Every structure is written in structure tokens, then in C-alpha cells.
Amino acid sequence: MAKTVLFSDLDLSDLYPDANYSDYDYYGTFNPNSVAAKAPCGIDVMPPVFKYLVAFIYGLTCLLSLVGNSLVVLVIAYSKGNRSVTDVYLLNLAIADLLFALTLPFWAVDRAHEWIFGTPMCKILSLLKEVNFYSGILLLAGISMDRYLAIVHATRAVTQKRSWVRFVCVGIWLLSFLLSLPVIIFHEAFLPTEEMKWVCHEYIGWNQISGIRAKLRILPQTFGFILPLIVMLFCYGVMVHRLYQTKNSQKKKAMKVILAVVLVFLVCWLPYNISLLLDTLMRSGAIGETCDLRNSIDTALSGTEILGFAHSCVNPIIYTSIGQKFRNNFLKILVTRGIISKEALTRFRRGSSFSSTSL
């Protein structure tokens, strides 16, 4: 059963005699020193049209992600003899997006109506969302380090044969799960007030634990986002500088897909993580809390989350649009299945360079 958390059911005056209803934010975090505690804060209500539009976007993203990432998994799994270290990372990235795509119908219902699936599903689906994000950026960091070794230190022959890439991927999945554990502990389905709808959200509470919990958010944000981001920026910064000092057009073409994947990931997820960081700073008391700031951050989290969710269907579009190797391997599958002729494959590949280093 989902948890009902009604302020009317609690005798808050016994806990904080000088507090009033406005001392509590949307999700029950008590901050008696905030400016918002001095006056009631209105809650912004999303227009119905926007709710259904977001639900439609989630549904469309789910469909595109399931089709596109299934195709990516098929192509990479089929090309065993021509699979690079980067391909193994991208295979895991596609699997992560596939798992997350399965949660999108539930989030669509939540946006259009309210959370009706209870606390267990809230924890599971929120966990999948977090694991998708952390595994995504950690896998991209792994790709950046592999490409850095191959291009800057000219160790491609070694990196292509490293069998331990599978163990690295397993480690990334385990680390992503560990970074996502707070979601299992703190996410619940609850009713903020009688006038509001059921939500699946982080339930922090209104005692001293709230401040500690808000500060603990910094740990996964640091190790699961900021540090991998620094690694990626360093590796790709050095690689781009090195590549454009040489005339190796083959390596430049091989980098286009990977750079596009990284840039799209940052465009989709960086705004959400900036909003989440601001929310963490506000909840921990590092920045002053006001009604306007609170509503602005809530709106930012809601809006940027849409962009982050949409990311799950973007990578296959990148592969098919600028990934020569991906298109060639896909056509090989069609030839093997007798869907197209070998002559058609030859005509398609004529005049185009074939890269074996990336999708």
C-alpha cells in the first residue's frame, strides 16, 4: 500500500510550537529558518494540456527507444568478429536505455494523472531511472578513457584486445546500482496534502534527518556525475587537440559518433543535474530558500527531467545518421537474411570509408 502523508494527520505543534503550515515545502522538508516559512507558498499546477503533451512525449520516446536500442543491440551482438572495445560500451549503453524505456509508460501515467502504482513500483522504477543515468555517464567516461589511450598514446592494438572490458562494464553496473541505493531507501508513493495528487518522490521528512539526507545527495552527484564529467572533458579535450594536429581523417571520422553521443548526453542531462544540485543546496541550507526559488527549482526539475528522459531514444538516431560502421553492419544483417542483395550493399559502401573503431 502506498503511504499517505497528510499534514492534517500530524500534530506538528508538538514538534515545532512556533511553526505553521508554510514551514514545510512540497515534499515535507522542514526549514524553520527559511524565508518561505514566513508566508504560505502557492503550488504551481501544471495545465492539463501540458500534462497530456508530456505523457505523449514519454510514450513516443518509449516506442522510439525500444525500436532503436533493440536494433543497436542486434547489430553489435551480431558483429562479434568486428566488435571493438567502444562497441562493448555502447552495447551496454543501449541495454541501459532499453531498461529505462520500459519505465516510461508508468511515468507517462504519473504525469497525465497521478502515481497509482504504489511504493514498491515507485522504488523499482525510480531505481531504474537512476541506474540508467549513472551507468550512462560512467560508460561514456569509460569510452573516453579507451579512446584517449588509443589516440593520444597510440595503444589501439592493445585496447582493442583487452578482454577485461567486460569486467569494467560489470563494475560500472555495480557502481551505478550502489549510487542509486538512496532511491530505494527514500523514494515513496505519498500524498503531500489532501488537495494534491499522489506522487512518487523522494520523501525526506521534517526532522533533523532531512538536512543530513540533503547533504548525502552530494555523494552520488559527485562520484556519479561531476567526476566522470571531468574525466570526459579532459580526455576529449586532449583528443580533439591531438587529432586536429594530424591529418588522420580516419580517426577524425571515428571520433564523430562518440563526440556526438557525449554532447547529446550532456545536453539532455546536464540541465537536470544543475537543477538537482540547486535543489540540494537549497534543502541543505547552503542557499537561502524563498517561495519563488522553491517554485523555480521545482519547475526546472520537472522540465529538465523531460529532456533527460527523451535522451533514451537519441543514440540510435546518431548511429544511423553519422555512424558508417553501424549502417554497414546493419546492411550485412539484411544481406545475410536475404532482405537485400550483396550488390546493393556494395553500391552503398562504394566511396565511403569503413571505420572499425566505432559505430
TrEMBL record:
GO CC entries: external side of plasma membrane
TM region(s), chain numbering: 52-77, 89-108, 164-186, 223-244, 256-274
Record's keyword terms, sorted: Cell membrane, Chemotaxis, Disulfide bond, G-protein coupled receptor, Glycoprotein, Membrane, Phosphoprotein, Receptor, Transducer, Transmembrane, Transmembrane helix
Keyword Cell membrane appears in the UniProt entry: yes
Limits of the G-protein coupled receptors family 1 profile domain: 68-319
One matching Pfam family: 7tm_1
A GO molecular-function descriptor: C-C chemokine binding
InterPro entries referenced in this protein's UniProt entry, alphabetically: CCR1-9-like, Chemokine_CXCR_1/2, GPCR_Rhodpsn, GPCR_Rhodpsn_7TM
Subcellular localization, as worded in the UniProt entry: Cell membrane
Main location: membrane
Topology relative to the membrane: Multi-pass membrane protein
One annotated GO biological process: immune response
The family this protein is said to belong to: Belongs to the G-protein coupled receptor 1 family.
Record function comment: Receptor for interleukin-8 which is a powerful neutrophil chemotactic factor. Binding of IL-8 to the receptor causes activation of neutrophils. This response is mediated via a G-protein that activates a phosphatidylinositol-calcium second messenger system. Binds to IL-8 with high affinity. Also binds with high affinity to CXCL3, GRO/MGSA and NAP-2.
Subunit structure: Interacts with IL8. Interacts with GNAI2.
The protein, known as: C-X-C chemokine receptor type 2
Gene (name only): LOC114603388
